[in-house]
Specification:
Chain lengths: 423, 423
């Protein structure tokens, strides 16, 4: 792991266990005090209006375009590339650290315009996503699903260790944490009978992390693997809701479609690669060796705790999974290099999701399909009920954070409740 | 077929064989005389500035929002729904018909601002596409490809006649006619050897037609099949460029990805359902019967001529295919009903492409893969050379039109030249 940054403290109270420490300063979009949506960051339980900071001239040294934070999405800011994002985070650390400048600390009038209680803010989609790609980058997940459908011997298909398998998902139905998801209707084929139509009986979540693209590449050009991380503005949690019965009947030969595109849930904060740097680790040995265009040097992965919680309509809570972002086979840099090697253009705000992240043990599996193993091992809840898939009224909450020697940086949560299907 | 409209003539000269007759009035985006991009239509060889028409108050009766045509994409106009589009086309017919109002015919000063020679206009992408879906709706195409890879007995997979199979494509790399496409690099696996990296050796076109969505639907709601056509703003030609060797190695189990997303080519004009109404026909009998949510009444299909031309770098020309839009099994209304039955939201400007349109005879196949049957039947060109796939320097041109008793309505062309791969 890389060395830890020196300990720092803020003059703003940061509750113990907060994801939003002085080391984090993620970016998001919020509506504050009934105003228009704008760019924000967060420290402890306080939302920071970046537009107010800019208006009050606390960010002059960054030379950012006027009004860059007074927009309903972060795309224009992300398009500026990694440099301005890094400078902004460093400036926020200076403004809010107890050891830093007193420029804001000593001015309560400015603070009143800049700081807003998180409980009163409405967090919105941080980016307008034009293109969303879902990868399949966790070996344990791919092997689990493959074993269920093809047997252990052929669990991984022949291409899986040669390239990061991925496909295009639906951008329009990606929603921010807190937006309910409605159980989909669709066509399914139970057993040997004819196809039937009705509500999915096998609604599932998928625990994923997505990279958010900052600066893109022009159509016809490629991003080399060694330069790919420069194009990542940050990361967020991604729940790729899946209807397994719809997916199972539809997916041959062109891949998932209606089994996925009824909705996805993202966490509201984009956490920067700089903030996550203390949690970098080497990736797994890749054997067979990858082709040169997928080769990278150095620390390629992150060790971040990931957790999935279920809360029923009656308020019964259960941890469903404890996993880690370390359980990816393919790194995000490899995903980007592969995605663009044919000249495909990435754009600011694009999401590249990892695919379901499963560890080696059942406790670390990233979907109900795997946790309850196609319904063969239902999860028992504290009230005596059980789950093989997600039921109406259930809320699924993804969480993710890095923690090391007292330093914590996290994503917050990606939370969504399941509503019953419309008739 | 529906009855023909009464014959009409324009006071603007429309050359014989023009796709852009007084019955058409498609919508596009163009840069005229070096000005900013704006909404246009076309009649014969004259581009019509819709913004100038509105500014000169020729469209007051339509009560459209001011500046609606002074935008770089048509999305906001399409979002208004079918009514305004219909009223606009009828108003253009009245303004430009020899029998109609003289309001424009008698005012050369207005004409000079409104009419621009097509040869001098730069046509741009007509819509900003956020989501592009590709279907697989032609039975002959699905059966041809299935027969090549699985044999004649299992050519169609079990789900094919029960639902319109589709998948999400890449929106960012869709380009307007005239934009070159660069041969993609990628990972392939020739024979039994290890995977290799290099330029695709099996570059192909796909002859498709795409529906452009006008008014969308809210996430969580569905568009019934019987109402689906109201959500179609129009149609355009779509070339879904494909690298067969990259696709073949990558596509299991999640579908096509880098074999497709390096580029697609669309024709610049959105032709309205009203303009194509004279060419409506019944669809094929669907057996087994579809589930009720896919059932529609009345004329579901269109009889439009489709053609693919090849022009080599040396200027040698060859017609590769003569097909028809009649060769779809699944109608666009069925595609929309299926796409939204799970609550997936369509948005203005979304493209729903048909998938490759192949007829029953080799002369009507819609891709080189089928025409040259995996290279087993190369196409001979007039200069003695041959083609199994598309070569560097080749230009592929899709054309499409309806023609009946002297009435013609067409799309123009979707044209792109292949550039050599970058090293």
């Amino acid at each position: 792991m890389s060395t830890l940054p020196p300990p720092v403290h803020s003059w703003v109270e940061v509750p113990p266990g907060s994801d939003f420490t002085l080391h984090n300063f993620p970016l998001g979009i919020a509506r504050l005090a009934g105003g228009p949506p704008g760019a924000v960051s967060i420290l402890g339980d306080w939302i920071i209006s970046l537009d107010a900071l800019q208006e009050l001239r606390y960010l002059d040294s960054l030379h950012l375009p006027p009004g860059i934070f007074a927009q309903p999405q972060l795309n224009a800011l992300l398009a500026l590339g990694a440099g301005p994002g890094r400078a902004l985070r460093e400036r926020l650390q200076a403004l809010f650290s107890a050891e830093g400048t007193g420029a804001l600390r000593n001015y309560p009038d400015s603070q009143a315009r800049i700081l807003h209680p998180a409980a009163q803010a409405e967090l919105l989609m941080p980016v307008s996503v034009r293109n969303y790609t879902d990868f399949y980058a966790s070996e344990h997940h791919a092997a689990n699903v493959g074993a269920m459908f093809r047997g252990r011997e052929q669990a991984l298909l022949p291409n899986w260790k040669h390239l990061p398998v991925g496909y295009h998902g639906r951008a329009s139905s990606i929603c921010v944490s807190g937006t309910p998801v409605r159980r989909p209707l669709g066509q399914m084929k139970p057993g040997d009978g004819p196809p039937v139509f009705g509500p999915s009986q096998r609604l599932d979540f998928e625990l994923e992390v997505a990279a958010v693209i900052g600066e893109g590449n022009a159509l016809g050009t490629r991003i080399p693997a060694g330069e790919a991380e420069r194009h990542i503005a940050g990361f967020l949690l991604f729940n790729d809701w899946s209807a397994r019965d719809i997916q199972q009947w539809e997916y041959q030969p062109l891949g998932p479609f209606l089994g996925k595109n009824f909705g996805s849930t993202v966490s509201p904060w984009i956490v920067s690669p700089d903030a996550l740097a203390p949690f970098r680790i080497p990736g797994p040995a890749q054997e067979p060796a990858v082709l040169p265009y997928l080769h990278t040097e150095g620390l390629s992965h992150y060790d971040l705790h990931l957790e999935v919680d279920l809360v029923t309509a009656e308020g019964v809570a259960q941890v469903l999974s404890r996993s880690s972002l370390r359980h990816l086979y393919w790194s995000f840099a490899q995903q980007i290099a592969h995605h663009t090697v044919n000249g495909c253009n990435l754009e600011p705000g694009d999401l590249l999701a990892s695919g379901t992240i499963s560890g080696p043990e059942p406790e670390s599996f990233g979907s109900m399909l795997e946790i309850a193993w196609r319904g063969e091992r239902p999860v028992l809840l504290p009230d005596g009920s059980s789950r093989s898939f997600v039921e109406d009224g259930d809320t699924i909450i993804l969480r993710g954070w890095g923690e090391r020697d007292g330093l914590r940086v996290g994503f917050g949560a990606a939370r969504a409740q399941v509503l019953p299907a419309l008739s």
